[in-house]
Amino acid sequence: MSNTLHNAIMEAGSKDRPPMLAPGNYVQWKSRIKRYIDTKPNHELIHYCLTNPPYELGWKDKLILDSEGNPTTTTERVFETYKNVTQDIRDQLNAKAEAVQIILTGIDNDIYSTVDACPNACEMWKAIERLKQGESINVQDLETNLFWEFGKFTSQDGESLELYYLRFYKMMKELTRNQCKSQELKNVSYHKLYDILKQHQHEVNEIQAEKIARVANPFALVAQQQPVYHP
Question: Residue 141 in contact with residue 129, Cβ under 8 Å?
Answer without folding.
Answer: no
